């Protein structure tokens, strides 16, 4: 379970998160929506431990463990996965090698046995097939020369292989056509289980047609100003953020 | 603090004394007095029982050297070298050359064991003993081990001799194959080629000699390990490789030295000759002691390496992974004389702390349709300076010559330097020459991306660096590629800062 209490954070000198309270119980998928600049990406970076995002107050725990005191790789080992809004290119680093290194680092940290190349390839090929991706995905260098859609699918592939307990999807739907969107959604839905939860950050209702959230939260100006069921997303789609913001003011 | 700087700091704090090859070995040595005069050269020549012609050749080189001055065009800085304060000959004490490994000083064997160099011949005939123990079934590698000034052991010589391959210390080749040595020595790098080559010609002590007869594909990798041990001694080895028509050989050299406060001089010469349709692949993993974090000690590596593609369709390929030395001054070159001959240069040079590397290649296109490829990857960290210096020259007769050069630099931290100095001269209008260069930094977002996937900062840096070098590492023989990867990791662990 992810529990965030009174979380405040700044980037350089600017306060971006102004007191976030949020609980995502195991097995649930929550959506975070909000206009540009409301602090959505900052929240995902603060939770995953990116440099330059300074926590000034509050707490964030995952399964009772204090997330904020951990290094990024320790958070990953604890089961946190961030699907990046802009996946990073690693020239010369083969996707299969990257994934296996990542998987084995995580397995080691959890006290599990490492997978050898053969077992890993078997696992990776199965996931690629299930996600209807191209076979050459593993041979290519990490995100180098990938189209926007391919990069996002690669994030989903990594997620499928690393099997996180908590996934944060940072606008994974941006720039995706409808087919890619379905693949991404299928990837998340396949992971749905009583011990898996997800925080889906998105601008649009569209993705939520495929990943139906248990709860929807509206983030504005560094605070959650409204929470509700999936119908809240539909209402936002119909009438925009303005009315919700006006109500909260 | 930026992620990179922090990584570097952590990494540095764990491994201040990162050079794990820094031990020295206590062995009774036969050492010439310090200094360089004609007498020193006569002494070296006498110690090695050399023929008169070679002594003359050395003295001629010495005379040339005395008229020359140290070159200072490279982007390296060092205190003046006192050439009279160096021992020019240091050898483990022994009466005759060892007949077998049993006669080699056990201290020496123990040292090579420490270095992980297989001197014991594992003469396993595949399918016989190999069947019993699959782990032993690795590719065989013949090794020549050079300790300070002399070769101490060469393995697998008999099995090589069966196919006519000669692989032995050059001092033995002078004795046993004088005509071959005399015919080729100094034909690729003349005695007066440059200051350090002249010095080497005057005082060279040992090195490897390889001869691959016509049509023979050398059945195993040949490798030489050079080790400087004695204090205040220089190492001046001389390597000569001759590949006759249609032959093929892959040769690897590795280098280490103990940790010393003072600088030690290393000035080698390597000459390669490839006849019609012959291929020589020369790989180097250079890991001389680089000096400490403040720049104290370390090897001055002033090396002249040159190969000539004398025959048509011949090919010479240089691959180097350079992580060591306080100063590296080295330009493995190809003279493409034969029509359709091919020259290649693949290089990874890593500099950390206060290291300085000025390295690159020369591709001289003389024959028609000669082709060359240059791929250089420079990685600078700490307060080091890393320069690629390369010359591509196309002579008037070289119709259809082609060159592709790619120089990439990777910077780690913000106190290091990367420089690219290409010289391109074309005297034939049909030549096609391409030069690409990039400079990049390990970005914070790359590190964060890797760490978010569970990699430690160190693993992330290694992964990114290895990715950057991949094009070059894949040119190394399989086993050495793995070693080189580890070496890159260790170098960056030890001294990135």
The biggest sheet of chain A amounts to: 6 strands, mixed
Radius of gyration of chain B: 22 Å
Summarize the main sheet of chain B. 11 strands, mixed
Helix content of chain A: 25-40%
**End-to-end Cα distance of chain A:** 30 Å
Structural class of chain A: alpha/beta
Summarize the largest interface: chains and residue counts: A-B, 33 and 25 residues
Counting copies of identical and different chains, the oligomeric state is heterodimer
| Mean of pLDDT of chain B | 80
Figure out the total of helices of chain A: 8
Task: Tell me the CATH superfamily of chain A.
Answer: P-loop containing nucleotide triphosphate hydrolases
Give me the strand/helix succession of chain A: EEEHEEHEHHHEHEEEHH
Do you know the CATH topology of chain A?
Answer: Rossmann fold
Q: Give the domain tally of chain A.
A: 1
Low-confidence stretches of chain A: none
Number of strands of chain B: 23
Helix content of chain B: 10-25%
Shape of chain A: globular
What is the fold's blueprint, element by element?
The complex is a heterodimer of chains A (249) and B (497).
Chain A: E1 2-11, E2 14-24, E3 29-33, H1 40-48, E4 53-62, E5 65-66, H2 72-77, E6 80-83, H3 95-109, H4 117-130, H5 148-162, E7 166-170, H6 178-191, E8 197-202, E9 215-220, E10 223-228, H7 230-239, H8 241-248
Parallel strand pairs in A: 3-8, 3-9, 6-7, 7-8
Antiparallel strand pairs in A: 1-2, 1-4, 4-5, 9-10
Chain B: H1 3-14, E1 29-31, H2 38-47, H3 52-67, E2 90-92, H4 106-115, E3 141-147, E4 150-154, H5 157-162, E5 166-169, H6 170-176, H7 178-184, H8 195-203, E6 208-212, E7 221-227, E8 238-243, E9 248-256, E10 263-266, E11 269-274, E12 279-286, E13 298-309, E14 315-322, E15 327-330, E16 333-336, E17 342-351, E18 356-365, E19 371-380, E20 385-394, E21 402-411, E22 417-426, E23 432-441, H9 444-452, H10 457-473, H11 478-495
Parallel strand pairs in B: 3-7, 6-8, 7-9, 8-11, 9-12, 10-13, 11-13, 12-14, 13-15, 13-16, 14-17, 15-18, 16-18, 17-19, 18-20, 19-21, 20-22, 21-23
Antiparallel strand pairs in B: 1-2, 3-4, 5-6
Helix pairs in contact in B: 1-11, 2-3, 3-8, 6-7, 9-10, 10-11
């Amino acid at each position: 379970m992810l529990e965030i209490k009174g979380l405040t954070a700044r980037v350089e000198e600017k306060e971006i998160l102004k007191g976030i309270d949020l609980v995502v119980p195991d097995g649930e998928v929550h959506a975070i929506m909000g206009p540009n600049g409301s602090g959505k990406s900052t929240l995902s970076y603060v939770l995953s431990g990116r440099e330059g995002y300074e926590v000034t107050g509050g707490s964030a725990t995952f399964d009772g463990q204090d997330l904020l005191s951990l290094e990024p790789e320790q958070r990953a080992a604890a089961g946190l996965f961030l699907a990046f809004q802009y996946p990073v290119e690693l020239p010369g680093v083969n996707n299969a090698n990257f994934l296996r290194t990542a998987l084995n680092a995580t397995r080691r940290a959890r006290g599990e046995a490492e997978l050898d190349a053969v077992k890993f390839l078997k696992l990776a090929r199965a996931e690629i097939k299930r996600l209807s991706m191209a076979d050459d995905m593993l041979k290519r260098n990490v995100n180098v020369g990938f189209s926007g859609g391919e990069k996002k699918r690669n994030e989903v592939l990594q997620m499928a292989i690393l099997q996180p307990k908590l996934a944060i999807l940072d606008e994974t739907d941006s720039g995706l056509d409808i087919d890619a969107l379905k693949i991404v959604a299928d990837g998340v839905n396949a992971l749905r289980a009583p011990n898996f939860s997800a925080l889906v950050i998105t601008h649009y209702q569209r993705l939520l047609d495929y990943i139906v959230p248990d709860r929807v939260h509206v983030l504005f100006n560094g605070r959650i100003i409204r929470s509700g069921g999936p119908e809240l997303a539909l209402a936002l789609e119909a009438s925009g953020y303005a009315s919700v913001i006006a109500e909260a003011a | 603090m930026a992620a990179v700087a922090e990584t570097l700091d952590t990494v540095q704090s764990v491994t201040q004394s990162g050079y794990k090859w820094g031990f020295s070995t206590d062995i009774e040595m036969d050492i010439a007095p310090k200094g360089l005069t004609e007498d020193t050269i006569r002494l070296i020549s006498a110690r090695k029982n050399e023929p008169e012609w070679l002594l003359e050749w050395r003295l001629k080189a010495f005379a040339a050297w005395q008229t020359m001055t140290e070159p200072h065009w490279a982007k390296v800085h060092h205190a003046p070298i006192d050439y009279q304060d160096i021992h020019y000959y240091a050898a483990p004490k022994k009466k005759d050359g060892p007949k077998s490994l049993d006669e080699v000083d056990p201290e020496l064997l123990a040292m090579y064991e420490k270095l992980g160099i297989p001197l014991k011949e594992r003469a396993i005939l595949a399918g016989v003993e190999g069947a019993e123990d699959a782990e032993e079934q690795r590719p065989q590698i013949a090794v020549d081990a050079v300790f300070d000034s002399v070769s101490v052991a060469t393995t697998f010589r008999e099995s090589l001799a069966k196919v006519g391959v000669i692989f032995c210390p050059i001092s033995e080749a002078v004795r046993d194959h004088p005509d071959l040595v005399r015919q080729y020595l100094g034909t690729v790098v003349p005695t007066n080629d440059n200051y350090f080559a002249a010095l080497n010609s005057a005082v060279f002590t040992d090195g490897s000699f390889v001869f691959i007869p016509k049509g023979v594909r050398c059945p195993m990798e040949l490798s030489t390990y050079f080790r400087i041990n004695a204090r205040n001694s220089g190492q001046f080895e001389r390597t000569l490789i001759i590949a006759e028509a249609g032959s093929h050989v892959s040769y690897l050299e590795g280098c280490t030295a103990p940790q010393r406060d003072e600088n030690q001089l290393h000035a080698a010469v390597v000459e390669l000759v490839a006849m019609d349709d012959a291929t020589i692949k020369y790989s180097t993993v250079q890991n001389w002691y680089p000096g400490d974090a403040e720049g104290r000690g370390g090897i001055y590596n002033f090396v002249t390496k040159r190969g000539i593609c004398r025959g048509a369709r011949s090919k010479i390929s240089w691959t180097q992974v350079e992580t060591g030395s306080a100063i590296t001054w080295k330009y493995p070159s190809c003279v493409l004389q034969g029509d359709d001959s091919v020259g290649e240069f693949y290089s990874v040079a890593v500099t950390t702390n206060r290291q300085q590397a000025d390295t690159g290649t020369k591709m001289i296109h003389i024959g028609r349709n000669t082709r060359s490829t240059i791929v250089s990857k420079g990685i600078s960290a700490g307060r080091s300076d890393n320069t690629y210096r390369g010359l591509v020259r196309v002579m008037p007769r070289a119709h259809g010559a082609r060159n592709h050069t790619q120089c990439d630099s990777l910077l780690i931290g913000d106190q290091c330097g990367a420089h690219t100095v290409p010289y391109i001269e074309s005297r034939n209008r049909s030549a096609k020459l391409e030069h690409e260069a990039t400079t990049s930094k390990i970005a914070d977002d790359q590190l964060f991306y890797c760490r978010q996937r569970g990699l430690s900062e160190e693993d992330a840096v290694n992964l990114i660096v290895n990715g950057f070098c991949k094009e070059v590492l894949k040119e190394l023989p399989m086993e050495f590629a793995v070693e080189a990867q580890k070496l890159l990791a260790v170098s960056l662990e030890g001294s990135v800062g």
